[in-house]
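Sequence only, no structure available. Ideas?
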Amino acid sequence: MKKKVIIQSIGLLASVLLISGCQEASEDPSEDIAEESGQDNSEETPENNSNSDGLNESDSVSDEEDQDETFEDVSVTVDYEADLLKPSSIKALVNKQYALPEDYSPEDLVTVEVPTILENPEVNQLREAASIALSDMFQAAEEEGIKLYARSGYRSYQTQVQLFDSYVSNHGEEAANRYSARPGESEHQTGLAMDVTSESANYQLSEAFGDTEEGMWVAERAHEFGFVIRYPRGKEDVTGYQFEPWHLRYFGEELAQEIYESGLTYEEYLMERGLDIEAGE
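Reply:
I predicted one. Tokens follow.
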């Protein structure tokens, strides 16, 4: 049996549920990433949606002392309860052990003002700060001859239910757990994650994106705008997910810079600084 912390929106406390299993699905089934719209990937073409038209517990995970522990590293302080367990914090930890409440939805979602792929209004949204940062990143990329497209941003708990169930139906639960997130365990529900792609990747979400000029630009520069590649290559045992060069998580520029320079995943970054958290499958 595994423990899963349900992040609480009130009181900043973690309640522990005992469950048997965990997590999400995304692709390889890379050809199946029509997830967000229910349409076939291959039929999607980019739309430059530069405006809002047409949118869219003894069993505690750690001792009390550990849960109240904080650390300071240069410019960033992270608190277990006030940051990691608070859904609305840009530092919130969301993975297979730390889940968002079913009823959580960000209050400051806005439509992104960058070129998008899908017509689904929901997935063309991010929280305001993340949306602004995304626009800045896309503009900087374009000035250097790099054309990026936003494919999937915010997804509600209910949308993730449909997506995960679809992966299970098509590929089985084992594959679904590797390629997709279980409801509540997806960073997309935070409104701080965006999947990006490019024409050279056929507008799809695949590992091949990481080898494109656009994917390499993102890997080298995204942190400057507050984003990090959340599921890097070789860290599958830590994150619980396959390498996803397209999945960007917004942490703000200071924290993103520190995570990037550390060469660690967010989980490793937190553990190295003394926070008692769980990671992996």
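Residues 128-143 form the longest helix (16 residues).
Hope that gets you unstuck.
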